[in-house]
Amino acid sequence: MHHAPLFTPVSLGSLSLANRIVMAPLTRCRADTQHVPTDLMVQYYVQRASAGLLICEATAVIEGNSAFGGRDPGIYNAAQVAGWKKVTDAVHAKGGKIVLQLWHGGRACHSLWNNGVQPVAPSAIPITNDETYTPQGKKPYETPRALRDNELPGIVDGFRRAAGNAKAAGFDGVEIHGANGYLLDEFLRDGSNQRSGPYGGSIANRARLLLEVTDAVIGVWGAGRVGVRISPLNSYNSMQDSDPVGLTRHVATELNRRSIAYLHLMRGDFFGVQKGDVVSPARAAFQGALVGNMGYTPAEAAAAVSSGQLAAVAFGHHFISNPDLAERVKAGAALVEPDARTFYTPDAKGYTDYPTLAA
Asked: pLDDT tens for residues 287-340?
């Protein structure tokens, strides 16, 4: 067996995993135009059920806050719950474990996808380093509307309701998306949060919304089935922070107090702009299960697990093109590289047609 430490069982809170290879949440835009999961999505997740844990793609908690166009999934109505129930039932039938990532797109949304509604954010600061796809082609991101303090309880309640819907859909738990420049991350980092008052300024104030959401979701699921994902260094969606290490330390300390199932830490920056070590402060402050993500090779992942630094490692792009990634890693087999041209296309090509090692 290759990379043996990855193939020992582990508990992330109340989640008992058969191995330590986690599938990172990967937006693939294969839901229908009403944001309902499809039978194609059932097939996709079942193909990957040998992972110790599947973390489903970013899933909108509140209608009208979609940041990936017309075909990213939601979890705010009965049809979506029923669609996701097909996914969870099929994954469980294969012996897999699966959690849903709860998400609000924040300023990464666009009004052309969301019935003309202006996107919202902590501050009226737009994403500036990219354009987004819309029904009218690529366009600049819009300047968001700054949320009022008295609107934030509604955001928290949206996550709470979505957590309940995820339970009704048969998931084993949920992950709160506090990463990659979407709403909760926008509040966390001072490059996007320049508001005053109880949700702006200090690190403690900027972390307030994420922690209120976490408390609300714990109230639905219990702490042992709630994970949180953060990306303190990632500059995706024109994000930055003046003190990512301090931010990591504070968030990890507060989540440790809540005894959540796991902290899912993206250790780097997609674009290599912001650098630093956020794994060490997270490990020092968070005594629970730490899940690492971003650029880990199987050998590095096995070493991090063996040393006790990480409980498990989440793999992203290689799970796109290697549905049996766990088996390939165990066999020491070569990994197939994915075709980026089919990441967000609407059909089976580049989604469910990658072969297994056995095939």
From this structure: 999 999 999 999 999 999 999 999 999 999 999 999 999 999 999 999 999 999
Within a domain: 355: no
Q: How many separate domains does the chain show?
A: 1
Residues in the chain: 359
Q: Which structural domain range is residue 58 located in?
A: 4-342
Residue carrying the six token digits 């290879």? 21
Please pick, among 182, 262, 296, 354, the residue that the annotation labels catalytic: 182
Distances in Å between the Cα of 238 and the Cα atoms of 25, 96, 191 are: 20, 35, 9
Tell whether 356 is covered by a domain. Answer: no
Mean pLDDT for 77-96 is: 98
Tell me, yes or no, whether 359 lies in a domain: no
Task: Look up 44 and say whether it is catalytic.
Answer: no
Helices 78-93 & 152-168, crossing angle to 10 degrees?
50
Contact 334, 325 (CB under 8 A): no
Angle at 49 between CA 233 and CA 305, to 5 degrees: 45
Query: Is residue 108 a contact partner of residue 237, using CB atoms and an 8 Å limit?
Result: yes
- 12: its two tokens: 């992330």
C-alpha 193, offset from chain centre = 20
State residue 305 phi and psi, 5-degree precision.
-70, -45
Looking up residue 27, the CATH number of its domain turns out to be 3.20.20.70
Query: By CB neighbour count within 10 A (0-12 exposed, 13-18 middle, 19+ buried), where does 115 fall?
Result: exposed
Residue 198 resides in a domain: yes
What's the Cα-to-Cα distance from 181 to each of 113, 197, 210, rounded to whole Å? 18, 21, 13
